[in-house]
Design goal:
- The chain has 232 residues and is α/β, with parallel strands linked by helices.
- Strand 6, helix 6 and strand 7 form a beta-alpha-beta unit.
- Helix 3 runs parallel beside helix 5 and helix 5 crosses helix 6.
């Protein structure tokens, strides 16, 4: 094991957290440090990121990592109007932000009941592309370090039961990838199931600080398991 473990986190808002110090990767690094495992952390998680942004960030991130902590699905599975029109959040610029604002306003108007039978809807990233994005993200980063160990953690449930049914399908894709590609998988829902929802979430989708601690606690043995399989 290297003297300092290089941890790379890529994901959506629940990877980035509401603040740089309140998120799952940061909580995990603190737990590992308490056990004498030194880690450097590159947290590339960000709000509204889908697996498309994750793949783009993996391609742009030149530094090799020892452990990849990967979590997507929350944005990918979001049902939107005319999903074929999408403006990525990474890399971002002023023009994209302005255009995105206009597109969001248009999509909101098109959700009117008068249009619902005529305007297509669907997930931001369809399941086939989602699987390809996750697999390619892992492949790109393993090209920089063939010994890279990967831990996938699923999207936590929202307060929308219908959305959660689709999220379950995206989480199942992560499980499938983990089995096929020598990765580990954490069931995030299970890791926070013992506590009331209002304690685990700050709002409809964002994990609270206690929830980040719960997930980090569940991830810690998986990271240690991967470390034990990393050649010195």
């Amino acid at each position: 094991m290297p003297s300092t473990l290089r941890l790379l986190a890529i994901g959506d808002c629940n990877s980035s957290g509401k603040t740089p110090d309140t998120n799952v990767p940061k909580a995990l690094v603190k737990r590992l440090a308490a056990d004498g495992i030194n880690c450097s952390l590159d947290n590339l998680g960000d709000a509204m990121n889908s697996s498309r942004e994750g793949l783009a960030k993996a391609r742009a991130h030149s530094a090799p990592a020892d452990i990849l902590l990967l979590s997507f699905g929350l944005v990918d599975a979001w049902i939107t109007t005319i999903p074929m029109f999408y403006i990525s959040y990474y890399p971002d610029n002023k023009l994209k932000r302005r255009t995105r604002k206009i597109l969001k306003s248009l999509k909101k108007r098109l959700r009117h009941p008068l249009f619902k039978h005529w305007i297509p809807t669907g997930p931001v990233v369809r399941k086939k592309e989602f699987q390809q994005n996750i697999e390619q993200t892992i492949e790109v980063l393993r090209q920089r370090n063939p010994q890279l160990k990967v831990v996938l953690w699923g999207a936590a449930p929202t307060d929308d039961s219908k959305r959660n049914l689709l999220l379950d399908e995206y989480n199942d894709i992560l499980k499938t990838i983990a089995k096929a590609d020598n990765c580990l998988y954490l069931d995030t829902t299970q890791s926070i199931a013992s506590s009331p929802r209002d304690e685990m979430f700050d709002d409809a989708v964002h994990l609270s600080k206690p929830a980040c601690q719960h997930v980090a606690h569940a991830l810690e043995p998986l990271i240690k398991q991967q470390i034990n399989h990393t050649p010195s």
